[in-house]
Every structure is written in structure tokens, then in C-alpha cells.
């Protein structure tokens, strides 16, 4: 802040006024000049701001010895920074207060540089929360645990049961397996597991001969016999070749399986005993051969399903 002193001289009177100025703003209201008229004893103040005025006769009365009495004047003045006004004090009735002498407020200055960052504050206390949670699959609920009184249990979070999938068809018996019934998805059915047993009844080149028990074997599995197939490397000519299949010496065929003359294979479904037990002894008899060409390389196939 700047202090300005203004001296106003009046004959036989001197007044000193201190003005306390803030940061310079726009020019404030004030006086542009003043003059004293010795004829009237008055001071006239000029102002471009409408503050001009004229005092009364401030001359004192003379006493004939060349010195007059003290003239009228001011004893002091003070500036009010809050209102911007100057108050003149006087013991002669000349005291007055000016209007607001402050100019318009100056524009804001540029921002100062940022100050240094302050130090980090201390950590706050731990807030309330949960210490754990557990899902109960039998109810579909989740229970949240808390040491701060926030524990709660949800409702059942499980969704509705979905529609049943295609899955495995119902039914079936022991030992059966699923098989496709078409090329479409999910079209399956239970079926007995296929079983096939092939037996060579002789070598590939020797003529077959009529005989009992030309070959024997034991059943490796329990089997439901569906059909038998007889085949030759060289088929019979002149007459059919016929074979019978027996379990424990008893035929399981209603009639022998027969390959006609000139053919090399035949299939028979004439089954009298379809159930063949695992481990049972099987024998094959040859009851007839071709009259011109006996036949060679005979094989017998047992075709059916695996029994439980």
C-alpha cells in the first residue's frame, strides 16, 4: 500500500492529510484544483467528478495590532479504506466527508505459480465390509459373512430347471447297446450286441469228406444264435454239401445247412436251439458232399447276438 501526503496551505492555516492507497485501480473521484479568494476569505475546490464546493469566509477578525484571530480551518483528516471516503475534521464547523474516492477495481492479476504438493495424509481407518461368502447348493442361496454387521443371505439364485435333453432312451436289457436307427440326430434304440464266430472246417485245397465231428470247439461267449452261414473256397458240384452243428452232441439246427451244387455259400435260419452257452462243446458233422466235385476250404459262421 502507498501513502500519499497532501499539503493544503491557507493563509495562517496548514493542513496535512494522509491518504492510504491500495493497488492502483482506475482513477477515483477527486478535485482538480482550488483557489483562495482574499477578498471573500473563501476557498473554492474544482472537480471534474461533481465534488466542487466553496467554503465560507475562513478569515479571522483582526485586533488592530497587525495580527488577526485564527482563521477557520481543519484540524485533521482520515481515509476509510472500507468506504473509500476521506473525512475532514474541523473545530470551526468546516468538517465534512467526501464521496467514495476509489476508482473502479483493476483487472485480476495472472495466477501465481502452483505451490508444492503437500505431504500425504495418514491412511483412513478400514471401512466396513464382508469377510467371506458361501454358496449352499441345496438351497441355491449365498450367505455373506461380516464382522461389521453387514452379513446377509440371498434368496434362491438357481434358475428354473431346463427341459430334459434327448439323453439315453429308456428300456434296454443287460448286455444291450445303443445303435443308430437312422442318420438323424438322437434317433437311437437299444439292441443286442452282435456276435460272430467263424470256424474253418478243413484246409483250402483238400476235398471234404463225410464224417462225424470233423471239427470241434468250445463256445468263447454265451450267444443267441440267429443264423449259420456255410462257405467254400471250391464249391461242390454234382450234389449239395451239407453240415450239421451240435451243442454237447445235440443238433441246434432244424435241418443241416446246405450249399447247392455249383454254389459256394449258403445261409440257414432253421435254428432249433438258439441259446448257446459259454464254454459248451460244439461239434460239426458233414453228412453229404458234391458227387463230381466234393468241395474244398469249408468255413462255418455262427451269427447272432451276445447273451447277457
Topology at a glance:
Layout: E1 2-10, E2 13-21, E3 33-37, E4 42-46, E5 53-54, E6 76-80, E7 85-89, E8 96-97, E9 132-136, E10 141-145, E11 152-153, E12 176-180, E13 188-192, E14 194-200, E15 211-218, E16 223-231, E17 241-247, E18 250-251, E19 257-259, E20 265-268, E21 275-276, E22 281-288, E23 299-306
Antiparallel strand pairs: 1-2, 3-4, 4-5, 6-7, 7-8, 9-10, 10-11, 12-13, 14-23, 15-22, 16-20, 16-21, 16-23, 17-18, 17-19, 17-22
What report would you give on this structure?
This protein is mostly beta strands and 308 residues long. Helices cover 0% and strands 40% of the residues. It has strands at residues 2-10, 13-21, 33-37, 42-46, 53-54, 76-80, 85-89, 96-97, 132-136, 141-145, 152-153, 176-180, 188-192, 194-200, 211-218, 223-231, 241-247, 250-251, 257-259, 265-268, 275-276, 281-288, 299-306. The strands form seven sheets. Strands 14, 16, 20, 21 and 23 form a five-stranded antiparallel beta sheet that branches. Strands 15, 17, 18, 19 and 22 form a five-stranded antiparallel beta sheet that branches. It is rod-shaped and about 195 Å long.
Task: Offer a few descriptive terms.
308 residues, mainly beta, 5-stranded antiparallel beta sheet, rod-shaped
Distance between the termini: 116 Å
Number of strands: 23
Please write the string of helix (H) and strand (E) elements: EEEEEEEEEEEEEEEEEEEEEEE
Largest sheet: 5 strands, antiparallel
Radius of gyration, in angstroms, nearest whole number:
68 Å
Overall 3D form: rod-shaped
Amino acid at each position: 500500500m502507498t501513502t500519499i501526503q497532501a499539503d493544503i496551505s491557507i493563509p495562517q492555516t496548514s493542513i496535512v492529510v494522509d491518504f492510504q492507497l491500495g493497488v492502483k485501480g482506475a482513477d477515483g473521484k477527486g478535485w482538480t484544483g482550488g483557489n483562495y479568494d482574499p477578498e471573500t476569505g473563501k476557498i473554492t475546490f474544482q472537480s471534474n467528478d461533481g465534488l466542487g464546493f466553496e467554503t465560507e469566509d475562513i478569515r479571522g477578525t483582526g485586533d488592530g495590532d497587525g495580527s488577526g484571530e485564527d482563521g477557520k480551518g481543519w484540524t485533521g483528516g482520515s481515509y476509510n479504506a472500507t468506504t473509500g471516503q476521506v473525512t475532514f475534521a474541523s473545530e470551526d464547523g468546516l468538517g465534512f466527508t467526501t464521496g467514495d474516492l476509489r476508482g473502479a477495481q483493476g483487472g485480476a492479476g495472472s495466477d501465481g505459480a502452483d505451490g508444492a504438493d503437500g505431504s500425504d495424509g495418514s491412511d483412513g481407518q478400514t471401512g466396513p465390509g464382508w469377510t467371506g461368502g458361501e454358496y449352499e447348493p441345496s438351497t441355491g442361496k449365498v450367505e455373506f459373512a461380516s464382522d461389521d454387521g453387514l452379513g446377509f443371505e440371498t434368496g434362491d439364485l438357481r434358475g428354473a430347471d431346463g427341459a430334459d435333453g434327448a439323453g439315453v432312451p429308456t428300456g434296454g436289457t443287460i448286455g444291450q447297446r445303443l445303435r443308430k436307427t437312422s442318420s438323424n440326430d438322437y434317433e437311437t434304440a437299444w439292441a443286442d450286441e452282435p456276435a460272430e464266430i467263424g470256424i474253418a472246417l478243413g484246409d483250402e485245397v483238400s476235398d471234404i469228406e463225410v464224417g462225424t465231428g470233423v471239427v470241434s470247439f468250445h463256445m468263447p461267449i454265451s450267444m443267441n444264435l440267429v443264423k449259420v452261414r456255410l462257405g467254400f473256397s471250391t464249391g461242390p458240384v454234382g450234389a449239395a454239401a451239407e453240415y450239421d452243428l451240435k451243442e454237447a452232441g445235440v443238433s441246434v439246427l432244424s435241418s443241416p445247412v446246405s450249399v447247392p451244387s455249383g454254389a459256394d455259400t449258403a445261409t440257414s435260419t432253421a435254428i432249433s436251439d438258439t441259446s448257446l452257452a459259454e464254454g459248451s462243446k460244439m461239434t460239426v458233422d458233414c453228412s453229404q458232399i458234391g458227387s463230381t466235385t466234393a468241395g474244398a476250404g469249408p468255413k462255418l459262421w455262427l451269427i447272432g447276438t451276445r447273451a447277457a
